[in-house]
Amino acid sequence: MLKNWLKIAFINYRKNWLSTIINVLGLSVGLCVFLLIYIHWQDEKSYEQWVPNNEDIYFVENKSAAFGVMSSSSYPEIFVSKEKFSEIEDATIYNDWGKEKLSFGGNSAYVTGSASVDSFFRLFPFEKVSGNFQGALSDNGKVALSEKTARLLFGDDYLNAVGKSIKNDSKSIEYVVTAIYKLPESNTVFQPDFIYKNPYLEQSKDQWTSFSYNGFFRLKPGTDVKALENKLSTLMQQQDVISAKKWGYDVDKKNPPLVYLTSIRKMKLDAKSEGINKGDKKSILILLTLSALILLLSGINLINLKTAQASQRAKEVGVRKVVGSSKSKLVLQFLLETFLICLVAYVIAFAMVELFLPSYNKFLNKEIKLNNLSLFIYTGLLLLVFSLFSGLIPALYLSNFKPINTLKGNFARSRQGVWLRNSILTLQLIISSFFIICSLIIHTQVKFMMNKDLGFKGDQAIQINFKKMNWENNFNVKKYKWLKSEVSRISGVTDVTGSVNSIGNGSANASIAKKLTDTTKTVQTMLGGIDENFLRFYDVKFLSGRDLDWKKTSDTISGAVVNETFAGKLGYNPKTALDKEFFTGWDGKKKYKILGVVKDINYAGVEQQVMPIVYFNYDRNWVKNNMNNIQIKLSKDDINGTLERIKEFWLTKAEPGYPYEFQFVDKQFAKTFEKFQKQQTLFTILNIVVLVIALLGLFALSSLLIEQKLKDVAIKKTLGADERTIVWDLTKRFLIICVIAVLISIPFGYYAMNEWLMDFSYRIDMPIWPYVLSMISLLILTFVVVSFKAYRATKINLVKYLKYE
């Protein structure tokens, strides 16, 4: 019996070779897209699975009225809470402090370091290679190295590195190696090449509102996490009142401090703040949903083409029922035929995934591998479910044929058959229209962001960040001044400046400012420590007032230029803000006077609201040691030559032995668009895939249906109908279905895009033209696809179709 079923299946595959190829191709592409995004989703969910007892370890996040939800905590919040609340079994902090240069003898390594405390290895037990984790970070002179770093510094003798001294050239500090560890091979956000004790803990012990550390708790099993969050929030609210009295600001009772605990198993995707290397859960879920729609579209193609072929197999079903075949056997036979198509598509899809995965990894900047056994198990189950879903409707449909009708040949024109095909075709076109609408609106929003006035001109300007830094003895500011003096002498350099917050990198420092006449009026603001020529360097436009004058003592001590958002937050417009005074949270109770108001500059990306910012003399207070970059404007006459001369100076005099890295400021800012440009690219690709699958299915379906009407065409031609009339009669039904499908898709597209646009502080108004263009483009494509087959139908041999009439 099975052998006969297979023979019948392959005879039908060969007979309907075009629809078979379209089915296999559509399913392969749909499965490939779904698998790529599903693999990405599973990869993001797999972070920190290596940590023992990870169900009890939580990431600490804080919410404040001024700064919103933050990924950072204060030192006393973490360690005082540990002593105060019995539910907390252990605690640690962890900060990634960027790349630094380590050396031993003649060997050196430029690697990423992290600051922590001795409890780190108790919560995150890396595999120990050598030494002892207990006491490994007990004082500032100790360091633990990764196996990779130890090999770079000590070569083949790295296992004997414990007890030896290495030098941190970036900070001119020596460490004793206490342990060597191996980084996890599985996914993790913790990838430090070396770990040392955070050197600023002593001065942070009483600073409850200095949110500078990533904190983690290990809770006792069975802890009520929500109840502990409430206790921690109450503690932080008490400390907020104490800090308010100390610093002279008013507590915002409507927005009290809150503490959130996020399981590290979910931290990568579900952190409420920006987290630690947080993934974009919303985008992944959107893409996963869209890829599922593509898979559904592939299944719809299969269902539609199978039901369209019903008239060809109606007599086969009728004969088999007459000779005694049961309905259940017919259903199983048709399900087997569908399963074989799906199985071939499944194998081809995995081959396509293997082919496209390297490019997809490069696009995502990840290293996803196709080596997870559970992936094959889950997708195998998906194959069975999908085969059942896409095969059951045609199977039941075909098996329900009545022998008396099928043997008389009446089925092809039944209302039931026409209604089912039209309904499925409508659903197919609804999905296609939805993708077109969404793709056009996403493209419009991204274009809007890229063309928005950013408030500065960053062309021909580069930024170089210092590699060698030290906060002691004002090293950073001294280095900045020396670099500025030296770089200014290089031929082709037209201007040099610097700032604490660099364009494209968001806020490096933020604090609170208060209105002098109403201390309840507080503003969260960026600390805009800048060099004297910074605003002129970027051609920032003044709305009122003037720039800071370094020759005037009052300007350098208490003068400030603010952006229009800052002025608005204090209740002023650009003109009324001039000469107004305000208190700052970074200079004690010192007063600043507004000398000028400038246009807003986007520092973090145009999808986010512009933050208030106060520009002042960088050399006035502690902020000066956050001047860790230099910004250089190049002459347009010899950009490449100037870049080479700067590189030579940097590698030979500025920072010999360190990698030379620079970034054009406009490109640095353009990186803030990358996430949305990638969304645009992916959506465009998905849109093309959807249209190709839908149009191929439409072509195959129209071919089958028009073939069933060739006798009608022959009769109409005999009666004198012209080709145009016949083509229109054959295509108008498809065009009506297309219009209905677009109209149904519009509310779904509007809702989805309205939700997507809510993520942007600066966004377009919902346009009408994408909905109109979606209808026009689908009508044109449908007409072109169907009319091609319809026109060919007008060229048939009349004798062939009328000789039996």
UniProtKB/TrEMBL annotation:
Segments forming domain MacB-like periplasmic core: 20-234, 429-646
Transmembrane segments: 21-41, 284-305, 330-353, 373-398, 419-442, 682-706, 734-753, 768-791
InterPro entries, sorted: ABC3_permease_C (IPR003838), MacB_PCD (IPR025857), Macrolide_Exporter_MacB (IPR050250)
Keywords of the record: Cell membrane, Membrane, Transmembrane, Transmembrane helix
UniProt entry tagged with the keyword Magnesium: no
Membrane topology classification: Multi-pass membrane protein
A Pfam match: MacB_PCD
ABC3 transporter permease C-terminal domain segment(s): 289-402, 685-797
Domain of life from the UniProt record: Bacteria
Localization of this protein: Cell membrane
Keyword Transmembrane annotated: yes
Major localization class: membrane
Protein name in UniProt: ABC transporter permease
Organism, as annotated: Chryseobacterium edaphi
